[in-house]
Amino acid sequence: MIQSVLFAGVGHLAQSGSGCLGPNGTSITGLCTSDNSLHMPVAYRSILPMLVLFIGALVLLLVSALLSKRSRPGLYPVLSTAVGLAALVASVWEWYDVGNRGVSTIGGQIFYDRFSVFFGVVVSVTVVLASLVSDSYLRREGLDGVEAYALILLAGTGAVLMAEAAGLIMLFLGLEIMSIALYVMAAYHRRRTESGEAGFKYFILGSFSSAIFLYGVALTYGATGSTRFQDIAGYLARNTLVHDGVLLAGMALLIVGLGFKVAAVPFHFWTPDVYQGSPTPFTGYMAALAKAAGFAGLLRTLTGALSSQQANWRPVIWLIAVLTLLIGSVMAIAQRDLKRMMAYSSISQAGYVLVGLQAGSAAGTAGSLFYLFTYAFVIVGTFAVLGLIQGPGEARNDLGAIRGLARRRPGLAMAMLVFLLAQAGVPLTSGFLAKFYVIEASVQRGQYPLAIIAMLAAAIAAFFYLRIALLMYAGEGEAAGPAPALEPAGGGAEAAGEAAGEAFVADGALTAGLQPVPSLDGATATLTWEPPPEERIAIPPAVAATLAICVVFTIAAGVSSPIIDFARHATAMI
Amino acid sequence: MDAAYAILALPLLGTAILLFGGRRTGDPASGWIATAMAVGSFVATVVVWASLLGHSAASRTVHKGLFTWIPVGSLHVSFGLQLDPLSLTWALFSSGVGSLITLYSIGYMKGDSSYGRFFFYMNLFLFSMLVLVLADSYLFSFVGWEGVGYCSYGLIGFWFERNSAAVAAKKAFVTNRIGDFGFMIALFMMFGHFHSFNYSTVLAPLASGRLTLAGATATGLALMLFLGAVGKSAQIPLYMWLPDAMEGPTPVSALIHAATMVTAGVYLVARSAPILHFSPSAQWVVASIGAATALLAATIACGQDDIKRVLAYSTISQLGYMFLGEGSGDYGAGIFHTVMHAFFKALLFLGAGAVIHALHDEQDMKKMGGLWKYLPVSSWTFLAGFLALSAIPPFDGFWSKDAILAAAWHKSPALWAVGVVTAALTAYYMSRQFVLVFGGKARWVDRAAEHGAAGHEAGGHAGGRPHEAPPVMTVPLVILAVGSTVGWLMNAPFAGLNFLERWLAPVFPARIAPSFAVATGTKWAIGTVATAFAILGLVAGLSAWRRTAERPALEPAVLAHAWYIDETVSAAASGPLARLASGVSFGVDAGLVDGLVNGVGRLAAQSGRQLRRFQTGYVRNYALGIGIGAAAILAYLATRMGG
C-alpha cells in the first residue's frame, strides 16, 4: 500500500509538478527527453538505503506469509537487523559514491547529497539497534511477530525519505510513511490500555499537525510557485516579495508541523503520554528516529529552502528552543515515572538541536547533526535499560524500580550511568561534545543569551539525571525506606524536587485514560519508594550487545572527533 | 617508538581487567596481573628510552598523537604524548619503582578482602602518573594530575571502614584541591596568553628564545603552577595531608612518596622551567619554600614515634630539597635527587612495611627494637636506605644532595645553610629510627604474643617471633637497596659519568637554565661540610638512642605535635573559621544560596504545577496547545510582514 503511494506520488509529481520546465524555464533532467512524461531515469543507487529498508520490510512480510505461523520466532529480528545492516552498508557506500560522483537529484524531488546519506547512516544504525533490543521485549510481552519489524523498517524508510526529500511534497510523504508506522508501533502493546491510548493520541494529534503542515506546504507553494526546495530558494533569491505574508504564514505552519515531530514546545504535549504508553524499546526508536527525521526536514526547509528568510525564522526558533529547553528540563524534574521523565528529557534534548538549528550556520547544522547521531545511541540504550528493569507487563516504570540497580546488575547500572551522564552533558561522553558544538555555534552567531539559557537548562536537567544515577547506586537497604526527601543529606533542592515530583505523580493522567485527573491533592500523601522488584533481571545477549555498542560509541564519540568531521561534511546540502 | 602507546595501554588494560574482573581473579592473581602490567609498562618505557638514545641529543623530543578531543574554531584541543628526556626520566622511575612496589604488594596485601580493588587502584595510579608525565600539554597533564589525586584518595582511604582512614583520604583530597585550583588558574592564564596548552606551543618558543614573557605574566603563571606543585608535593603550607596519608596500606605510602604523586609537583616545576626563567622572584619563592619546608619537616621528623610518620616527614623534607635545587636553577640536581629519592624512599617504606608486617601492625617505634637478628634482609636493606637518605657517602643521597647544596650555595649561602642544617637533622632522625627499630633491646615481645592472632592489617598471622617477609616482598627490597647504593653512578660528578645531566641537557638549554660553575675547591668544601654535618647528626642519633628508647628531653612535645601547626589549623578551622563557616552555612548558604536553590526548586515546582494544567490528558487540549503555538508564531511573523 505504502509502496503504491510512494511511487504513485513520485510519478504524479514528476508528471504534474511543472510539466517539462521548472517555473523559471529550467529544464528538469530526464523529464523532457521522452514523450512519455512518466519516464524518468532514476538512479537507484541514490536511494539505495531507502530501497533496502523498504524491500526488506516487504521481504519480511513475504517470509512470514510463506512460513507457518510462529514457526520461526527468532527469524524476524535477525532479518530486520540484517536489513538494517545492509542499509548501513549501502549508506556508507553512498557516502563515498556521492563524494566521487558529486551530488544529484532525481527529478528535482529527491536529493542525493551527503546530508541525505548522513541520515541514511543514522536511520540504519537506529534500525539495527532497535531490532536488536526489541526482540526480547516483544517475546516477554508475548507480542513477537513479523509486524513489529516490518513497522520498524517502514518507519525507517519514511525517515530516510524525509532526509532525502528535495521538496515539500516528498517531505510530507516521508513524514506520513514514518508517522503511520510509528502510530501503529505506539499502539503495539495490545493488552496495555496505555499503549492503545498512546497510539490513538499520537495518531489524532499527528494527523492534526500533518494537516497544519500540508496547509503550510500549500501556502508556501502559493507564495513561491513551487514545492521544490531549489526552486523556492531560487525564487526567493531572485525576487523580493512585496507581500510576504503568505510565505511567512506558510513557513510558520511548516515549523509547527515539523516541530510536532521533534517534540518542540509548545507542540510537545503528546510526547510524555506517547512515550510512556508505547512499548519501551519502540519509545527509544521513536525518540531517535522521529527526532532525526523531523530535524532533517527542518534543516532542509529552513536552512536550505528558506535560508533567505533567516531574519524571520531565527527569532521563532529562538523562542521555541528556549521554551523547549526550559520546559523539558523543569517538567522532567517533576516526574516519578521513568519513561515519562525520559520523555521530558528528550524534549529538553530537542531544545539543544534547535539551538544548533537556530544558529543558521554550517557550524550549527554540523552540531545538530552530531547531536542527532550521538543521541540515537544514547536514547535507544536508555530505553533498552528501562525495558529490562520494568519487568513483565511493564509493571514497574516508577523511579523506585531502578533503585539499587548497581547492586543487582552492576553492568546494567554502569551502562545506564553512561547514558545518563551523556544526556547530562558530562565531558568524555558524546553528550558533552554535542552540547558543546551547538552552543559554540550559537555563540559564534552572537547568541549569548540563548547559550546561557542552554547551559542553565543543562544544569537543571543534570539534577534529575543525577538523581536517577544516585538511585541506582543507593544501597539496597534503603530500598524500602523513606524517600531521599526525608534524609538530611537530601538537601533543600532535593526536597523541592521531591515535592514537585509528588505533585505530578499523575501528570498527564495517562493512567486515567482520556479523563483528566480531578485533583492533585490526593497525590501529596506519603513519600515512600516502592521497593525495587526482587527477581533477577535477565539481560538477553542481543540487548547486552546493543548496550555495549551504545556505551562504547557514546564514550568513543565523546573522546575523539571523527564523528564531528562526518557531521561537518554532511552539512553540504544541495 | 610505538612502544610509547604500550607504556600507557598496559596499566590501563590492567585497570580495566581488575575493574571488571577484580573479584573473580582474586588473590593473588589480581596482584600478578597488576604487576605484569606495571612491569610491561616499564619494559616499554625502557624500549622507548633506548630508541630515544638513538637520536641525536637535539632531536630527542618526539610527539605521538593520541586523539583530538575538541576541534572547534580557535579551540583545538588534542591529546598526545611528548617523549623527551624529562618525561622519559619520570616514566622510567615511576614505572620501574612502581613495578617493584606492586610486586611487593602481592605479599603485603595477601588476604585482604578487597585485594582486587587495591591492585585496580595501583594500576590506575601508575597509569595516571604516566599520563601526567608523558602528556604533551598542560591540559592533558592535568587529566593525569587529577587522576593521581583521585587514586591517592582511593588508596589512602582504602580501609575506609576506619574513620581515621576516611578522614585522612578526605584531607589529602581537599588539600590537593587547593593546589589544583592554582593549576587551573595557571591553565586559564596560559590559554589567555598563548591560546594553547601544548608544551610545544607554550614552552618551546620560550626555551629557544623566540618569545619572551613579561615579568608579571611569568611570575603569575609560575606561582600558580607552583601552587599546584605545592599541593601535590606537600610543601608549606599544604603539606599536612602527607603524614596523614599513612592511613593507607604501606605499599601505597611507598608509591605515593617515591614513585608517583608527590614527585609530580617536582616534574611540573621542571617542565615549566622556561616560564620560571622569566621570573627570578618566582624562582626565589620556589627555592625559599623548598628550603623552609625541608627544615620544618626535618625538625618534626625528629619527634615522631610512628615509623611511617618519620618517613612521611622525611619525604616532605626531601621534596623541599628538590624544590630548593630547582629554585636555585639547577634542575638537573633536583631531578637527580628525585630519582635517588625514589629508590631509597621506596626502599625505606617497603622496609617499614616489612617491619610492620612482622610485628603484626605495630607502627610505634618505641615498641620495636632488636629486630636486627629476626629480619636480616629487611635490616640490611633498610640500612642501605637509611644511609642513602642520611647522605652518607657513597650512598645515593650524598651525591644528589651535594649537587643541590652546591646550587643552593650559588643562589645564596643562607639557603645553603638551611640545607646543611637539615642534612644534619635528617641523619639524626634516621639514625634514631634505625636504632629504635633494629637496634637495642626488643620491646615488642609481650605485645606480639598478645596481638598474635588479632587482625593483621593484611590478614591473620599466627603469633610468635617476628619473621622475615616472603620473597615476593624481599626481592623488591634487595633490588631497591642495590639501587640506593649504586644508583648514583648514573650521575656521578666525575670520570664523565654524569649520564643523567647530559641526558637532560636538551630539556634545559643554557638559555633557560644558565649553567654556573662552582669552583672545585668550594665544591669540596661544601661536600665536606655537609658530610661532616650528616655524620654529626648520625653519631648524635646513634649515641642518644642506642641504649634507651626514652629521652623526653630530646623529644619535646612541640616536635611530636609537629609544632602544633596541625592543631592550630584545626583550632582555627574549628574555632573562628568554623564559626565563619557556620555563619556562611546558616546565613549565606541556608538563607541565600539554599533560598535561591530552593527558590529555583520551588519555581520549578510552581511552574510545573502551572504547566501541568496544560498536560491534561485531553487530546483536544493538546491540539489547542498546538493551535495556540501556531497562532503565536503566525502573530509574530505577521508583525514582520513586508520587512
Verbal overview:
The complex is a heterodimer of chains A (about 575) and B (about 650). By secondary structure, chain A is an all-alpha fold. Chain A folds into two domains: about 45-470 and about 540-570, no CATH class; about 480-530, no CATH class. Chain A has 21 helices and two strands. Chain A has helices at about 1-15, 50-65, 75-100, 115-140, 145-165, 170-185, 195-225, 230-240, 245-260, 270-275, 280-305, 310-335, 340-360, 360-390, 405-410, 410-425, 430-445, 450-475, 490-505, 540-560, 560-570; strands at about 105, 110. Chain A has a two-stranded antiparallel sheet with strand order 1-2. The model of chain A is unreliable at about 1-35 and about 475-525 (pLDDT under 50). Chain B is mainly alpha-helical. In chain B, helix 10 (about 260-270) runs parallel beside helix 13 and helix 12 packs antiparallel against helix 13. In chain B, strands 1-2 form a two-stranded antiparallel ribbon. The longest helix of chain B has about 50 residues, at about 5-55. Chain B is built from 25 helices and two strands. The interface between A and B is large, with 70 and 44 residues.
Concise overview:
The complex is a heterodimer of chains A (574) and B (643). Chain A has helices at residues 2-16, 48-66, 75-101, 114-140, 146-164, 168-186, 193-224, 229-238, 245-261, 270-277, 280-305, 310-333, 338-359, 362-389, 405-408, 410-424, 430-444, 448-473, 491-503, 541-559, 562-570, and strands spanning 104-106, 110-112.
